Amino acid sequence: MPQVSSKEFGKVQGKPVELYTLTNDSGAKAEIITLGGTLVSLYMPDKNGKLDDIVLGFGNLEQYLTDSPYFGANIGRAANRIAGGKFTLEGSEYQLAVNNGPNALHGGEEGFNMKIWDAEGYTSGDSACLKLTYTSPDGEENYPGEMNVEAVYSLTGSNELKIDFNASCDKTTIVNLTHHSYFNLAGHNSGKIYDHNLKIEADQYTPVDENMIPTGQLKPVEGTFLDFRSPKRIGEDAEEAAKEYTSGFDHNFALNKPENEYGLAASVYDPKSGRKMDVYTDQPGLQFYAANFVENLKGKQGALYNPHCGLCLEPQKFPNAINIPSFASPVLKKGEIYKHSISYSFSTE
Ligand code: BGC
């Protein structure tokens, strides 16, 4: 039988943050806190059935409030970069907090990752589930409209961690939600992910300028270090990637599947542990970020995290899409429902 339990993880200004543990029949386990819907740990079996925690994280709430490079968090209202933090909607101009060089990044000073969500744990068939909800007030982080957002986590009996988002708003606004776990399939404290093999279902990517804002073009990955059309060791072209404005792999891939269609986006395999992760989404883009900016962070269980010790595969709309008309739009009109499903699906080989 799948199981769900909860306990207190800490308090923010007197308000408790709960930690929910979802466990399936084979013992795989996800721990999620109500601050940001953050995935604090994820235990998955290796080829010999040994469970290891394969996401980077902290052992205490304080670090999630002060030090976190979005470890395990759900990101909103708008993931990734918006040039100058500016956009225009229905004739009104909006200025978001500029919190990443000249850009707005990942929802602002206090994005959804910093909010305490309401939570309800339950089981459904062979899945252990957690439904998280949050109401973002009109004007929060300068985004228009009151937004109701829901993130449902399901840990299935077949070792799939699904996240189903939906959102609606009482005014026209923008939304682009994603999940920001840093995975290391060899175990969270195993050093660089350079020996992982990665395959991304994308023939094209969105090149960026010196501020990491897409130029608006789509370019073929063929002949570049971003060619992951066949499985490739991440370390193979890491030096090439480090010469870029992005200081390593930190790129948005334009997925081959039709937009809005749910399908495979990427697969990662760690030969040492035999763990494999397949990522599915219905969004058009996938940001692959190799933890370039993680430096000397004290993690849970005595771990020390340094550059490239994890990888993020973040399904989303393209960066700065609100200002680039040729990219799929992140505009959500009053009365419409935004939906986004992600699956991180685990197996061994
Ligand atoms: C971005 C990186 C950024 C990181 C913050 C990623 O999603 O692509 O550029 O530094 O988030 O932790």
Automatic annotation (TrEMBL):
The active site is at residues 180, 314. GO terms for molecular function: aldose 1-epimerase activity; carbohydrate binding. Pathway: Carbohydrate metabolism; hexose metabolism. It catalyses: alpha-D-glucose = beta-D-glucose. GO terms for biological process: galactose catabolic process via UDP-galactose, Leloir pathway; glucose metabolic process. One of its GO terms (cellular component) is cytoplasm. Pfam families: Aldose_epim. InterPro entries: Aldose_1-epimerase, Aldose_1/G6P_1-epimerase, Gal_mutarotase_sf_dom, Galactose_mutarotase-like, GH-type_carb-bd. Signal peptide: none annotated. Gene3D superfamilies: 2.70.98.10. Keywords: Carbohydrate metabolism, Cytoplasm, Isomerase, Phosphoprotein. It is found in: Cytoplasm. Its EC number is 5.1.3.3. Beta-D-galactose binds at residues 80-81, 180-182, 250. Monomer. Belongs to the aldose epimerase family. This is Aldose 1-epimerase. It comes from Sedimentisphaera cyanobacteriorum.
